[in-house]
Amino acid sequence: xxxxxxxxxxxxxxxxxxxxxxxxxxxxxxxxxxxxxxxxxxxxxxxxxxxxxxxxxxxxxxxxxxxxxxxxxxxxxxxxxxxxxxxxxxxxxxxxxxxxxxxxxxxxxxxxxxxxxxxxxxxxxxxxxxxxxxxxxxxxxxxxxxxxxxxxxxxxxxxxxxxxxxxxxxxxxxxxxxxxxxxxxxxxxxxxxxxxxxxxxxxxxxxxxxxxxxxxxxxxxxxxxxxxxxxxxxxxxxxxxxxxxxxxxxxxxxxxxxxxxxxxxxxxxxxxxxxxxxxxxxxxxxxxxxxxxxxxxxxxxxx
Length: 303
Known about the structure:
- The chain has helices spanning 18-34, 65-86, 101-109, 134-140, 172-185, 198-203, 216-225, 229-232, 247-252, 273-286; strands at 10-13, 38-44, 53-56, 59-62, 92-98, 114-118, 145-148, 161-164, 189-195, 206-207, 238-244, 260-265, 290-295.
- By secondary structure, the chain is α/β, with parallel strands linked by helices.
């Protein structure tokens, strides 16, 4: 796909649904905070299906290609209107993509700073760009992907930003991304490292005690994961936490209490995919909070 997208742009996909509107609002606020332009994108049609049928009560209608494009533009224009209502003066534009939404959004991610999706899509023109394909896009996207899922317990206090630390050098950009978000949003940050052991096997995800013995090596690893970040982000209140359990369970537990959950994703061609790729996908599917998937570089080969 050819594009002239500004590489500093935050891109948000919309299909006109309530879930998409939530994503547009999140993206507009992020663009305002980061002082970046916003592009509201919608996609119409696929190579296999040239028109999309919509069934109403007692009737059915099939969009023609010209009508699909017009409807796509209207949906994108509505997204821009929502963004400008929230943040007047924001630099925002629209883009209508033609083709498979998953492929189009992955292609677009190569040119974007950030890609934002809703958790589900129910619009007449674009029923799959948000929801079932969010995990597929996040697995292959070249830039960080934000999946805005509906939050549970909206009337309760939130806990800030949560990020998983696996102790690898490749995870450092993920940790820094989480610090940056916490700083920008004025929220506390919790960094969790998960340990799989007999306690996890017997009881599932459970927090480790501060004085619990046998975890000295893991505590050192966790401390090294955030080394230098306190100097770079002195305004961020940081809580380091060890937990018994697998990462996807630890990051998904009580997910509705977090403002933002940040996870990393290793390249699919590496052996890390089976572990970290699955973690990111499961967290996105389970979470009841906004999740950011940050791509990680491949680990250095062992000598």
